[in-house]
Write a structure and sequence with these properties.
The structure is a single chain. The model is unreliable at 307-314 (pLDDT under 50). It contains 16 helices and no strands. The protein has 345 residues and is an all-alpha fold. The chain crosses the membrane at residues 59-80, 92-115, 151-171, 202-222, 234-254, 274-293, 320-341. Residues 23-288 form the NADH:quinone oxidoreductase/Mrp antiporter transmembrane domain. One of its GO terms (cellular component) is mitochondrial inner membrane.
């Protein structure tokens, strides 16, 4: 794929997201979602591999079904209330259907099974786009509709996502599937706090986008697809491997960056007398913590095997610059918590 074609599809992705975020009419929002879906499909099949074709087919069928549900729910709401405005979902049936459609778009449990399989068939940079940019439009719609969506349904999906997101990552050797299940778990945290604090949802979403992007870029630099290749750490860049582990553990451990949104979410749930829910999602995060530590042990303590690439640890200057940014973002967000809280208030 040449640079002009790539620029066209990336511009279409940006346009679809911007149309959805800025629209007030359901038909315009649906058009933006469809542009997003159609623009990423050529990027998914640029490798001309059977796995990529399978991933593209699964993604298209899933997203088309979700878009059909969203359009159908908006039609029902317009038929019963005469309103096409996004913020005017008053019909209970429309609320349930649109919650289901947006959950499928995001990959929330129990509608999450397409996400690991699709990511497994793509290259790292397309996985990055699918796990970050493609989440922005449906998440923006969910945030706008947080008062109109079915609260009980959102809570059940949030709990299932945090549990199944951690459970699915256990004994998983493929890095793309690990990141897919990690994405599902993080989305569960965001949906859990959505009804109580949209600012915390946005903060968690921004940190998720940052950390996920950094993880995929690191995997792309070291050219690793599974745990077995990453365990050959003595021929990998030592600095980059250390930063990779810091970023991986920063997705939920203090004093690193990913701990901050979890801490604030649990605190807010306790204030809202949702102590049981806070306990459940906190315990479910221990599953993710377990397999993160397991991978950490595999990276640094298991015996490695000889490799012909004895000089692959030498990094280019651009890679060193990127590594410094990754390390800074992985460690410096938590100390800025008071500043961020003041900005949100």
């Amino acid at each position: 794929m040449n640079s002009y074609t790539m620029s066209f599809f990336l511009s279409s992705l940006s346009a679809g997201t911007i149309i959805t975020i800025s629209s007030y009419h359901w038909f315009l929002a649906w058009i933006g979602l469809e542009i997003n879906t159609m623009a990423i499909i050529p990027l998914m099949i640029k490798l001309h591999h059977p796995q990529a074709t399978e991933a593209q087919t699964k993604y298209f069928l899933t997203q088309a079904s979700a878009s059909a549900l969203i359009l159908f729910s908006s039609l029902i709401n317009a038929w019963t209330t005469g309103e096409w405005t996004i913020m005017e979902i008053q019909n209970p049936l429309s609320s349930i259907i649109i919650t289901t459609g947006l959950a499928i778009k995001l990959g929330l449990a129990p509608f999450h099974m397409w996400l690991p399989d699709v990511l497994q068939g793509l290259d790292m940079m397309t996985c990055l786009i699918l796990s970050t940019w493609q989440k922005i439009a449906p998440m923006a719609l969910i945030i706008q509709l947080n008062e109109c969506l079915n609260f009980e349904m959102l809570t059940i999906m949030a709990i299932l996502s945090t549990i199944l997101g951690g459970w699915g990552g256990l004994n998983q050797p493929q890095l793309r599937k690990i990141m897919a299940y990690s994405s599902i778990a993080h989305l569960g945290w965001m949906i859990m706090i959505l009804s109580f604090s949209t600012s915390l949802t946005l903060l968690n979403f921004m940190i998720y986008l940052t950390m996920t992007s950094l993880m995929f870029m690191t995997f792309f630099i070291i050219k690793s697809n599974n745990i077995n290749t990453m365990s050959i750490s003595w021929v990998k860049p030592p600095l980059l491997m250390a930063v990779l582990m810091t970023t991986l553990l920063s997705l939920g451990l203090p004093p690193l960056s990913g701990f901050m949104p979890k801490w604030l979410i649990i605190q807010e749930l306790v204030k809202q007398n949702m102590t049981t829910m806070a306990t459940i999602i906190a315990l479910s995060s221990l599953i993710s913590l377990f397999f993160n530590y397991d991978y950490h042990i595999q990276f640094h303590w298991l015996p490695t095997y000889p490799s012909n690439f004895s000089h692959s640890w030498r990094l280019k200057s651009q890679t060193l610059l990127l590594t410094s940014y990754i390390f800074m973002l992985s460690t410096m967000i938590l100390p800025m918590t008071p500043l961020m809280l003041n900005m949100m208030m």
